[in-house]
Amino acid sequence: MECRHLWKTYENHLNAIKDVSMSIGKGEIKLIFGPSGSGKSTFLRCMGMLTPVDKGDIYLTGECLTDKGVNLNLARARLGFVFQQIYLFRHLTALANVELALRYVLKLPKEAARERALQALREVNMEEWTHHYPAQLSGGQQQRVGIARALAHDPKIMLLDEPTSALDPELTAEVIDTLRDLAKEGVTMLVVSHEMPFAQEVADEMIFYDQGSIVETGTPEHFFNNPESERARRFMTRLIKKTQRE
Length: 246
Hints:
The chain is of the alpha/beta class. It is 39% helix and 22% strand. Strand 1 (2-9) and strand 2 (15-23) form a beta hairpin.
């Protein structure tokens, strides 16, 4: 996936995205981090074609998704989304939540949708909870169902927006373990997160994002040992201290 010279400005003249270009290759894991309000979530939503950009282009496996006439529903079906808030249907079981889009968006036959949904739940170690409703699941289990729902589409790339921000430390560890397992399987991921142990272990590249722009990029080793910009250095110092306290 690739974006070229993206811009997004809101009515208050806030530039959430200012001339941002980046790419992510198959099997790569890139982690975006930076201060709150810097535009990270907006950038991820634009990459997922959920929020329209003002200028610039987005490509997925060579196809320009920002061209006029592109079927956005089909384009989004090739992407997997996991959000901060866990948007599960409360009246549906875990299995039914994962099946829903397979049947009504991808139009898979009932049996094919059921098998694919079960496989996705197995991948996130939720096969024993398939017939439970969200209210019967912990926050970490609910987020794993959300990850399974995204995986079931067999997406080209997973877009994850702070998937652990609403969870306590114990449940956060549960979800991070799931993401580590997916990383080992070669799933392509673009993740907004401040989970530094996860970044240090699995990220191929970290991207420091501030005030609508990519300020600095590098490996986890680069950011943990010697960030170049003063802004990144200060931010990493605070993150590392916070991680140590936890």
